[in-house]
């Protein structure tokens, strides 16, 4: 089983890290990939450069062996579509190994607008994690795909949607960038190693 958490990570924060770790522990995953997007679709483009977002991610996960920084989207030109990313995983690991693509409620609410969204479940399972202030509408398109049994996801390579409560942390990168712009400290909302990097490179201050 390979776990995947994609994001803009501008910058990475404790809610991303807890989500990645809690998904890994819930499913017993030893290889959880955090994948920064080079050109994230459907949102304003990041402020920090791709290599800076990767460096902050690497600093954040340096001491946790289950979490791995994966730079495949940074090596690809154009929009960082998840469908394309998942296809590269399938080319590497074949069609049998379960892939667990993790995303928060906020991202999942727009899933039907994603590039080739209706083909993504043929490539991976989706683990949709709770995020404070967001909820899913009842009777959504996704209901026939829901599973509540982790063994279902272990037994098949793709095709299920699993809702998971993770520690509720109302942290967003937008809020962290706003604090920094206002000259306030985001300390304790993200790892000190990431804050050190931000300060050394004077990121998000204007
Ligand atoms: N506080 C949180 N709780 C649960 N999931 C989260 C949280 N923050 C981010 N995520 C999830 O992590 C993934 C990457 O998120 P992203 O890098 O866009 O962070 P963000 O804090 O939402 O950033 P921004 O404020 O810049 O949009 C998405 O799937 C998102 O839903
Ligand atoms: O593939 C798409 O069309 C698509 C559209 C929006 C978001 N995503 C993915 O969703 C993840 C979270 O995105 P974001 O913008 O919240 O950082 C990240 O892996 C993105 O690549 C993917």
How would you describe this protein?
It is an enzyme of class 2 (transferase). With 206 residues, the protein is of the alpha/beta class. The chain has one domain: HUPs (Rossmann fold), CATH 3.40.50.620. The protein contains 8 helices and 6 strands. It has helices at 14-27, 50-61, 82-93, 105-108, 117-120, 150-155, 173-181, 192-200, and strands at 2-7, 32-36, 67-69, 99-104, 125-129, 161-164. It has a 6-stranded parallel sheet, sandwiched between helices. Helix 2 runs antiparallel to helix 8 (192-200). It is globular. The model has no long low-confidence stretch (mean pLDDT 97). The site of adenosine-5'-triphosphate has 18 residues, from helix 1, strand 4, helix 4 and helix 7.
Q: Main traits of this protein?
A:
206 residues; alpha/beta; Rossmann fold; 6-stranded parallel β-sheet; globular; binds adenosine-5'-triphosphate; binds nicotinate mononucleotide
**Beta-strand level of the residues, as a percent range?**
5-15%
Ligand list: adenosine-5'-triphosphate, nicotinate mononucleotide
CATH fold group = Rossmann fold
User: What CATH architecture would you give?
Assistant: 3-Layer(aba) Sandwich
Rg for CA atoms:
17 Å
Helix content: 25-40%
| First and last CA, distance | 41 Å
Which class of secondary structure composition applies to the elements?
Answer: alpha/beta
- Major β-sheet annotation: 6 strands, parallel
Low-pLDDT runs of 5+ residues are none
């Amino acid at each position: 089983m390979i776990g995947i958490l994609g994001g803009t990570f501008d910058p990475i924060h404790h809610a991303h890290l807890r989500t990645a770790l809690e998904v890994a522990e819930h499913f017993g995953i030893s290889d959880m990939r955090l994948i920064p997007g080079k050109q994230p679709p459907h949102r304003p483009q990041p402020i920090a450069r791709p290599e800076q977002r990767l460096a902050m991610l690497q600093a954040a996960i340096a001491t946790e062996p289950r979490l791995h920084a994966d730079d495949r989207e940074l090596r690809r030109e154009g929009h960082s579509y998840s469908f394309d990313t998942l296809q590269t995983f399938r080319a590497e690991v074949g069609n049998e190994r379960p892939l667990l693509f993790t995303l928060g409620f906020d991202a999942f609410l727009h899933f039907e607008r994603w590039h080739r969204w209706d083909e993504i479940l043929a490539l991976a399972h989706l683990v949709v994690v709770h995020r404070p202030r967001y909820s899913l509408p009842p009777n959504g398109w996704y209901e026939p795909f829901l599973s509540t049994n982790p063994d279902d996801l272990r037994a098949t390579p793709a095709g299920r949607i699993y809702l998971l409560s993770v520690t509720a942390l109302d942290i967003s990168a937008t809020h962290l960038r706003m604090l920094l712009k206002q000259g306030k400290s985001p300390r304790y909302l993200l790892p000190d190693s990431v804050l050190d990097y931000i300060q050394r490179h004077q990121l998000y201050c204007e």
